[in-house]
Design brief:
The chain is 82% helix and 0% strand. The protein contains nine helices and no strands. The protein is globular and about 60 Å long. The mean pLDDT is 82.
Length: 278
């Protein structure tokens, strides 16, 4: 049943996403054309200046759309389909409330990850067009051995392990951000009036509390974990840096995951027992 819900969610949300992605492709193509080797340019300066201004404006909007607008649209979809008039249909479907929640969460995460990948590819394409030889030579100069040595030297992890940890960190941060908003919207819909305003206030409060808790935990981490004696040698200092880097990575993953689980529990409790539809 979750698979059917996911297919329905993607069918309901793919059109605005495709529009944003198409705008990204067009803006990237314009950027590649403008920032290509200037010796190959045959356009008058006035025309190229107009195109440059157009690109700057359009690409600014594209970045905002990919980073912020997609996030807002996924959160809006969650609220409208769960707690507005559409919620009457959603909650009458012969599926569990958690399946509805999971389908929207998974769909939102997929769209956000796709947006991130497209943004990276867009920036890389513009850099490639601007200096193709330098970009390609730079990629060729970076061998797997260099990446492996750099990862081991700076973090103590092999490169594939470090890459996996970074992906896990991104996923945890993405889930944390989405579920914070979901929890705020879920709590806000319990208000009898001004549900959106209540949700905004709750969201700000949750983010503030999250920052306070993270700060308190960080300040109470034992100093001996990161202390280095004044007479320490290079290897000891390097080991201390590696240890602090590893601790920072896993601390961030743990904090994001812990808060995400808490927010998920709040959303699950509300969608199961305390839905207050408009």
């Amino acid at each position: 049943m979750l698979g059917k819900l996911l297919r329905n969610e993607f069918r309901s949300t793919y059109k605005p996403m495709l529009i944003i992605y198409l705008m990204t492709i067009l803006s990237t193509a314009l950027g590649c054309f403008l920032f290509r080797d200037s010796s190959r340019s045959s356009l008058p300066d006035e025309v190229e200046n107009v195109l440059t201004i157009t690109f700057v404006l359009s690409y600014t909007f594209v970045v905002i759309a990919l980073v912020i607008l997609v996030f807002i649209m996924t959160c809006e979809r969650f609220y409208k389909s769960m707690y507005s008039e559409q919620g009457y249909l959603t909650h009458t479907l012969p599926v569990s409330p958690l399946s509805n929640l999971n389908a929207r969460l998974i769909t939102s995460i997929v769209w956000l990850l796709i947006s991130g990948v497209i943004l990276v590819l867009s920036i890389s394409s513009i850099n490639l067009a601007n200096d193709p030889d330098g970009f390609i030579n730079g990629l060729r100069a970076i061998s797997y051995r260099d990446l492996e040595q750099g990862a081991l030297y700076s973090t103590g992890y092999h490169f594939p392990v470090l890459l996996l940890i970074i992906l896990l960190l991104i996923l945890a941060a993405c889930c944390n951000s989405l579920l914070l908003v979901y929890a705020a919207l879920s709590l806000g819909q319990l208000a009898s009036l001004h549900k959106i305003r209540a949700a905004i206030g709750i969201g700000i409060g949750l983010a503030f509390v999250e920052q306070i808790i993270a700060t308190v935990i960080i300040t109470h981490i034992p100093d001996r974990w990161f202390s280095v004696s004044p007479a320490a040698g290079f290897e000891e200092i390097r080991n201390a840096i590696i240890h602090s880097t590893q601790t920072g990575l896993w601390f961030s993953i743990g904090m994001f995951s812990a808060f995400a689980i808490l927010y998920y529990a709040v959303c699950a409790l509300i969608v199961k027992k305390h839905v207050n539809l408009e």
